[in-house]
Amino acid sequence: MWKQIFWILWIGAVTWEVFLHSLEWRHLIKMKLNPNTVFDGYVQKSTVNDKNVDYAIEHLRISLGETLTNYLISAIIVAYDLPKLVEGLTAQISLPIFRAGAFGIAFGLLFWVSSFPWAWAKVFYVESKYKFNKTTKSIFIKDQAIVLGFIVLLSFLGFACFAVIFESRIWPLYLIFVFALFEIVAMILVPSVVIPLFFKLNPLADEELIFKINELLRKLGINKIKVFVANASKRTLHSNAFVTGLGSNKKIVLFDTLVSSLAADEVIAVLLHELGHWKLSHALKRIGLVLAIQAVLVYFAFVMSNVGFMYDFQIQNPQQFAIYAFLLLNMAVTLFFQPCLLSFIRRQEIKADLFAARHAGSSLMINALSKISTDNMAWLPRHFLYKAWYCTHPPIPERLRFLKTFTNI
């Protein structure tokens, strides 16, 4: 029964994701042929040209190719019982915990290898074609080596840990605890360990901007956050900013491309957006939602382990169960949980925009978003279904509409 459920979900997920990509492709083509049908008056059509649409289409092709590759790998894993093959290759490892870790590394490598060509194409075909890429091949290989290192480490620790806790009758509770611990540790380590591996973080050099930021932080009563500029221009000409970390380890990172392209007051507006995430506790709320979803998935996994799932897939150990359960539940997440989570995240982005508008004025935030979107070729509205399943940020026209509405309140 469970194998039939897997293939039904597989066909449904593949069909749905292809359908969503085709909807977005038709939406982009429609925009290219007749911009009047998609713009709502808040975006000047002169800022959007065929090049922007072509850029979005190129990324859509990469996204679809990567998505279908992942589904193909999943189908091969199940159809050819790859977990059993990998188990045979690792059978010589005497300690179960190391055998489980090696098993996890094998599948982590499999998915990394399948994603590598698409990452290469995205950087050296799409981004280079549209003059955004500054990444050299040596930097790309270095970055991928770092990613691979994290995949190996996390795959080993994850599967080894699961092999241990699965022996307990209350393993779902232990697993939920491990997920919560991972989220917290990741939020602590990302600012100080992970980000510096990719970017050099420097203090701001603009004295006028430093003075304005210090005044802003004083007015907001914030004294436990640090602002850094990342040398992102070594890799890309895209502009970005983000907040990361927890507590005293929290950082706001501004790309040097953003600082150089915006006026001081506009940088302040972007900074306020990131401070809005912090003041409104968005990271903690997001972690809470993610953990709630994970708890539901762990419950489903627990039910599966007791109602014939292991028998249908002829599972003999925890690591095999982890792979098959992950593949099935991942499709359930894609079909049912993903739009809920992303809708929550998009609402947080709007709230952060309005926080910035409240403290800096809507016009500055509108100007900053407009400049960033023009530089990044990111003005395009999205098909509403594609947005629901894939977009972490509302499209720029939607964000501007909220900001202009806020101005009129």
UniProtKB/TrEMBL annotation:
It holds the Pfam family Peptidase_M48. One of its GO terms (molecular function) is metal ion binding. It comes from the Bacteria. InterPro entries: CAXX_Prtase_1, Peptidase_M48, Peptidase_M48_N. GO terms for biological process: CAAX-box protein processing. Residues 30-200 form the CAAX prenyl protease 1 N-terminal domain. The chain crosses the membrane at residues 6-23, 102-125, 145-166, 173-199, 287-309, 321-345. Residues 204-405 form the Peptidase M48 domain. Keywords: Hydrolase, Membrane, Metal-binding, Metalloprotease, Protease, Transmembrane, Transmembrane helix, Zinc. The active site is at residues 274, 353. Its cofactor is Zn(2+). Binds 1 zinc ion per subunit. Zn(2+) binds at residues 273, 277, 349. Belongs to the peptidase M48 family. This is STE24 endopeptidase. It comes from Acetomicrobium thermoterrenum DSM 13490. The lineage of its organism: Bacteria, Thermotogati, Synergistota, Synergistia, Synergistales.
